[in-house]
Amino acid sequence: MLADKFILALKGFCMGAADVVPGVSGGTMAFILGIYKSLLDAIRSFDQVWLQAIIRLDIKTVWQRPHFGFLLPLLIGLFAAVLFFTRVIPLPTLLNTHPEPIYGLFFGLIVGSIFTLLPTAVKKDWATVIFLLLGTIVGWLVVNLIPVDTPDAMWFIVFSGFVAISAMLLPGISGSFILLILNKYETILNGISHFNFSIIIPFGVGVLLGLVLFSRFFDWLLEHFYRPTLLFIIGILIGSLWRIWPFQERHYVMVREKARLMESTPLWPDFNATTGLALLMMLLGLVIVLGIHGVARWKKGERR
């Protein structure tokens, strides 16, 4: 039991590491690690029955109904990763100084997840082609969007929170990148750091609405249209590889005196030591995912 919680915390750690990387979402890592459906179910456990229990002061239901046994270890691991990769090993800084090997690792992780997911969804029919292509186009379009001028009105802050968390739940799309596109990344970050509740409250409302509504909608899609949805997700992952490809001409914007990746154009690299290291990290990411997938299949067969 304790070992299972520790493994779950490690998966949360991987999700947190992904959230630190621009262009990579925690939803992608949850999908790779095989806990995506459980994550949606855990979010959905904060439902109307739970709210009614709070009103009735039914402490037992308030504590037992949500999937805290799943969420707490995951959140501990996630926050530990954010602290580790911003305080101990400054991953955002390394992304600016050594982007090729870092992006190489995540490129390998995503490619590995695509390889493991394709056999469960692909068939020799038009649906495979259509939904894969549609997801790829959507993924490519999102990662190539440019910032737009947007209002600072409260309703748009709510909308930004809703869209950002919905994107974060969707594998292949980064919530922080969506905030950059909406030109609200600096606004939200400044609001949180300065405890500006006129920003924090509407943004938090948008996040809660996104968690409640989008998680249920996406869970419904997986339940009723599993294969088309899975193909669409795989397509989004394929489309996002355009941004994750380690060899890019990158353009940054300054946000709170820190460089944030905003635009990049893939390049074919000249072979050198940096290229070799990036390719090695790609291979490492691929091996990690295939290894996790192999162990999961072995355990599943062992239980039978």
UniProtKB/TrEMBL annotation:
Pfam families: VCA0040-like. The chain crosses the membrane at residues 12-36, 70-90, 102-120, 126-146, 153-182, 194-213, 225-245, 276-296. Keywords: Membrane, Transmembrane, Transmembrane helix. The keyword GTP-binding does not apply. PANTHER family: INTEGRAL MEMBRANE PROTEIN, POLYPRENYL-PHOSPHATE TRANSPORTER. This is DUF368 domain-containing protein. It comes from Thioflexithrix psekupsensis. The lineage of its organism: Bacteria, Pseudomonadati, Pseudomonadota, Gammaproteobacteria, Thiotrichales.
